[in-house]
Amino acid sequence: MSLKIGKILLLVTDALLMLYWVAVAINMIPKESAFRDYTNPIMQAWNWSFFPLDLAASIFGFAGVYLVRIRHRIGWLILTIGLTLTFCAGFMAISFWAYYGDFNVSWWISNALLMVVPAIVFAILVFDRAASEEIASELRGRNVDSGIKENA
């Protein structure tokens, strides 16, 4: 998978995450599709406690993709923060559902994707950067070697 596809996956994930919060805010989650005890005020508070984390994850994800695209020097750092926050949001939710004993497949899949997508994109980033640095290093080595040979 290419970095371009990975960044698109992340943008779609972050956009869907924000769409979820819009749906929650305007009460569009059908009761039959909601997680167990959805109407319980404590569960509502637990759910809303994710909003700042999800918002930060999306902001950093969107900003990181943009900054990497324009080759800003902090782009990779911002993108990595966004990936980490998105992964943590999914991991925390899955951990809660496991502890709570609620195994609703649709909620597990959506939260598992919050872990899987950033992990894939991060792997692409690491291997893409490592490959780029290795190629650059080889090219620098060739230039140095050819320079030495030419001067000898």
Principal-axes geometry comes out as: elongated
Radius of gyration: 21 Å
- Uncertain segments are 144-152
The separation of the N and C termini measures: 44 Å
Amount of beta strand:
under 5%
Discrete helix count: 5
Number of strands: 0
**Biggest sheet features:** none
What structural class results from the helix and strand content? mainly alpha
Q: What is the chain-wise order of helices and strands?
A: HHHHH
Helix content: over 70%
Mean pLDDT: 88
Describe the protein's architecture and organization.
There is one protein chain. With 152 residues, the protein is mostly helical. The N and C termini lie far apart (44 Å). Helices cover 81% and strands 0% of the residues. Residues 144-152 have low confidence and may be disordered. Helix 1 (3-25) runs antiparallel to helix 3 (51-69), helix 3 runs antiparallel to helix 4 and helix 4 packs antiparallel against helix 5 (105-151).
Supply the key terms:
mainly alpha; 152 residues; disordered C terminus
Kindly summarize this structure in a few lines.
This protein has 152 residues and is an all-alpha fold. The chain has helices at residues 3-25, 41-48, 51-69, 75-100, 105-151. The radius of gyration is 21 Å and the shape is elongated.
Blueprint (SSEs and pairs):
Elements: H1 3-25, H2 41-48, H3 51-69, H4 75-100, H5 105-151
Helix pairs in contact: 1-3, 1-5, 3-4, 4-5
